[in-house]
Amino acid sequence: MGNENTAFEGKVALVTGAARGQGRSHALAFAERGADLVICDRCADTAGVAYALGTQEELAETARLIEGLGRKVISAKVDTQDRPALEQLVARAEEEFGHVDIAVANAGVSGMSPITEHSQAVWDDVVGTNLTGVFNTLAAVAPGMAQRGYGRIVTVSSMLGRSSAPTQAAYTASKWGVIGMSKSVAQELAHSGVTVNIVAPGNIDTPMVRNDNLFRTIRPDLDAPTWDDVAPILGMLHAQPVAILDPAEVTRAVLFLTDEASAHITGIVIPVDAGAATRTSA
Ligand SMILES: NC(=O)c1ccc[n+]([C@@H]2O[C@H](COP(=O)([O-])OP(=O)(O)OC[C@H]3O[C@@H](n4cnc5c(N)ncnc54)[C@H](O)[C@@H]3O)[C@@H](O)[C@H]2O)c1
Predict the structure, then answer these.
(1) 39 alpha carbon to ligand 1 midpoint, in Å?
(2) Were 38 and a residue from 14, 96, 117, 180 both cysteine, which residue would form a disulfide, CB within 3.0 to 4.6 Å?
(3) Contact, 153 vs 190, CB < 8 A?
(4) What is the domain range of residue 68?
(5) Per UniProt, which keywords does this protein have (predicted)?
């Protein structure tokens, strides 16, 4: 095994949805280990998502933190649903850095809604970002990686990518889709030195989970539910007795899958979900 602190020296990593949450955690971990970064975020709210998304200030803060670690960063306000914009970002990174070696298709949104009230906006936003956005990311980085004969791609599914839950029709559709799509692309790129793997997080401590809208959806019986009211319910989704995990736990799996030495691991799903997948997957 190489030195953990220099494992990504000379590498360039693209992380989508990097303004905050898991995306920021992954980006900083790559920077700490020597990589230069390409980061993007939509930096805008949208009708089908009932909580605030990342902001331009937060994306700028991620970039500042990367630079503070002595690494270079290209940072852009790009919505992963916009394939030409994503392709332009990758082209700019290939021009300025010479190569993009790693991509983490992390940008995602949650839209909980009973099927009787499931609006077109929720479906469009959730599937548009979580499935089409991940496809666009794969499509933007794959040509350059295949041509150069090297790449490590990680897509982000969820424990709901292999299970189901009420109010999650769009989200489960998108996250099941990410797994099938990623495995297909893993096969396609198997002859090119490019691996494609999937992480499937459980409840992770980011604003996607820790927001009032989610609290109210889980506890409609309460006027102003708090974290303490929802934690026991969220905890039941896991097998281990823990309601929520730190983003750093997902980052550890991302670092493992994107390591140069993980050359012959492709098409797998790593759950980081306190044992939730024991109930749904072989
Ligand atoms: N938090 C959890 O419990 C959990 C569980 C399972 C899977 N996930 C997945 O992990 C990933 C990261 O989520 P998080 O927990 O860090 O949430 P988060 O809301 O804190 O961060 C997501 C970031 O992605 C950005 N984003 C959303 N749509 C975008 C788009 N179309 N283009 C560019 N950027 C976009 C947001 O602005 C935000 O900054 C998502 O794919 C999510 O579905 C999260």
Answers:
(1) 13
(2) 14
(3) no
(4) 4-203+246-275
(5) NAD, Oxidoreductase
